[in-house]
Design goal:
This protein has helices at residues 15-27, 30-38, 44-53, 57-74, 81-93, 99-109, 117-124, 129-138, 144-151, 157-164, 171-179, 183-191, 199-209, 216-220, 227-234, 239-248, 253-271, 277-286, 292-300, 304-315, 319-326, 331-340, 345-355, 376-385. It is an all-alpha fold. Among the domains are: 1-141, no CATH class; 275-385, no CATH class. Helix 3 (44-53) packs parallel to helix 5 and helix 4 (57-74) runs parallel beside helix 6 (99-109). The protein is elongated, with a radius of gyration of 31 Å. It has 24 helices and no strands.
Length: 394
């Protein structure tokens, strides 16, 4: 009888009634056992035993729903014996071979904030969508630790989308949703007012939105976007979305002027893409405008060939050398190139993300928010390794 074996020892409280309940639980007919399962006066310990051991799936189903409804009251004494019995019974039912029992349990517990963790975790990992999806999408008792483990286990698309639509999504979980590469889940996350998204993940969304137009409206409609995200979005979204962005944000006059100036620059930059890359780079260089601002404008409009040619001109090497170095997909190599070109660490970060496509987990971030984190010796070593010599005057 396992965990409930102690129930079948001697009882001092109302022994006649308890003995009769034991007889019914062990040897009673289906009708008798169903009546006992529905009886308001039945011993809860006996009900737990029947929920686990009864061979009739309809009776187990009835008991799964009844025991789940008992939890709120029993939670007042989580150290009590009855609470322990109920939780252990529900934990077994969460693995019941009959799917309708697991579905009923999932439906009963999905809205219960204090549901037993072991039971919830089992239901959340159930291979049947109708069992696990309600828990994944609605149950706030499911902790971030479990959500993160589920998201890193190559889950099916519907699993990721269910998590993205939870009433509240923390920043770590939002980041894990985005890392799955599920486009619909990413869109759902942006439209979810209860989802917290870190600044770094907002930047990742903006970068991906350049390739995925379906992401542009959801991110533009999101409330309280940081000024730098608004500025970046205005550089490439269509005019109607720019209007939405500017109307939904509280930019200062100075920030608004900067956004307007940025948009004008990038439109002008994009219009000139029909010219030869070398000619454009030479003109910017001659005008003294081959700088952080220009490189970032080029990145924003996806003119990677211009960026590589510009880096070559600033360093005094060939575009092919830069292209070969970028293809290494090394964060340290990108930082060394940006540093030698005289660009800021902020630009170097964008080169890592947008030009070299460095994996999210391998990106090197600024020290103190603005400084290059590598020593001069480290960066010189990287340049020598790539056969890119000292900067020449061009």
């Amino acid at each position: 009888m396992g965990i409930f074996s102690s129930l079948f020892g001697p009882k001092s409280k109302n022994p006649t009634s308890f003995e009769e309940e034991k007889r019914i639980a062990l040897d009673g007919s289906d009708e008798e056992r169903r009546g006992l399962a529905q009886s308001p006066s039945a011993s809860r310990e006996i009900l737990c035993y029947m929920a686990v051991k009864d061979k009739n799936e309809d009776i187990r189903l009835l008991l799964a729903e009844r025991l789940a409804k008992l939890l709120p009251d029993l939670c007042l004494d989580k150290k009590g014996k009855v609470y322990k019995y109920v939780v252990e019974a529900l934990s077994v039912l969460a693995l019941d071979e009959v799917i309708k029992i697991r579905v009923a349990l999932s439906s009963s517990l999905k809205d219960y904030a204090d549901a037993p963790p072991d039971v919830i975790n089992k239901l959340a990992r159930d291979i049947e969508r109708q069992v696990s999806e309600p828990i994944l999408r609605y149950c706030i008792a499911l902790p971030d630790k479990e959500l993160l483990e589920i998201l890193t286990s190559a889950p099916q698309d519907w699993v990721v989308e269910a998590i993205a639509n939870r009433p509240a999504v923390s920043q770590p979980v939002s980041g894990a949703v985005l890392q799955t590469g599920n486009l619909q889940a990413g869109q759902d996350l942006m439209q979810n007012a209860g989802a917290e998204i870190s600044l770094e993940d907002l930047k990742l969304i903006v970068e991906k939105a350049k390739d995925y137009p379906e992401w542009q409206k959801p991110i533009a409609m999101r409330k309280n976007l940081p000024d730098e995200i608004v500025k970046e979005l205005c550089g490439f979204v269509e005019e109607s979305l720019k209007t939405l962005l500017l109307e939904s944000t509280n930019l200062s006059d100075e920030a608004m002027m900067e956004v307007t100036s940025s948009v004008v620059r990038r439109v002008e930059f994009a219009d000139r893409k029909k010219e030869k890359v070398q000619d454009r780079v030479f003109r910017f260089l001659k005008e003294g405008r081959l700088d952080d601002e220009t490189i970032q404008d080029a990145l924003s409009v996806r003119d990677n060939e211009f960026v590589m040619c510009a880096l070559a001109a600033l360093i005094g090497t060939t575009t092919q050398n830069i292209r070969d170095a970028i293809q290494l997909r090394s964060a340290k190599a990108v930082l060394a190139i940006s540093w030698r070109a005289g660009l800021s660490m902020r630009t170097a970060l964008r080169l890592e993300q947008e030009l070299a496509r460095i994996p999210y987990t391998d990106i090197i971030y600024p020290r103190g928010g603005t400084d290059y984190p590598l020593s001069q010796e480290d960066m010189e070593w990287q340049l020598n390794f790539m056969n890119i010599g000292k900067k020449h005057n061009v």
